[in-house]
Amino acid sequence: MESICGADCNSCGYGKNNNCKGCSESNGCPFGKQCFIAKYIKTGGIENYNVFKKQIIDEFNSLNVPGMPKINELYPLNGAYVNLSYPLPSGSAVKLLENDNIYLGNQVECEFNEGKIIRCYGLVAGMDFLLVSEYGANGDSPELVVYKRR
């Protein structure tokens, strides 16, 4: 499998188990939906995509979330890996993403952990939103910190 953005599709267990052929073969639609990253690269080129990605990194850093270190990179991620279920005050839970979409994201340790990993921040961006969540090991006890339209 080959990607348009340079992601290592061969290490994605979700894609292998869900008949993904990579975005090169599927013309930027690895799970039947248009990947915004592939579309951006095909339309504007890799240089413009890198400028766009840097803009999103700057937007994450400007949120000034307490305990979140400066973000230096974002990676293409399958929604199935980052689509956590967030508890609502009513006791129900909601997922805000789609498993079959590709997003830009990263995971960083919370700076308040004092030497051992207790909590992490998960960052996810789509074309029109930024999401920051905080969670424990393996995505346990997720809390939505920021959901912002871009």
How would you explain this protein's 3D organization?
With 150 residues, the protein is α+β, with helices and mostly antiparallel strands. Helices cover 24% and strands 26% of the residues. The chain has three helices and seven strands, in the order ααβαββββββ. The strands form two sheets. Strands 1-4-5-6-7 form a five-stranded antiparallel beta sheet. The protein is globular and about 45 Å long. The relative contact order is 0.15. The mean pLDDT is 89.
Q: Structural class, from secondary structure content?
A: alpha+beta
Order of helices and strands: HHEHEEEEEE
Low-confidence residue ranges: none
Global morphology: globular
Beta-strand percent range? 25-35%
The total of helices stands at 3
Strand order of the largest sheet: 1-4-5-6-7
Spatial gap, N to C terminus: 31 Å
**How many β-strand runs?**
7
Rounded to an integer in angstroms, the radius of gyration calculated over CA atoms is 16 Å
* Main pleated-sheet profile: 5 strands, antiparallel
Approximately how much helix is present in the residues?
10-25%
User: What is the typical, i.e. mean, pLDDT?
Assistant: 89
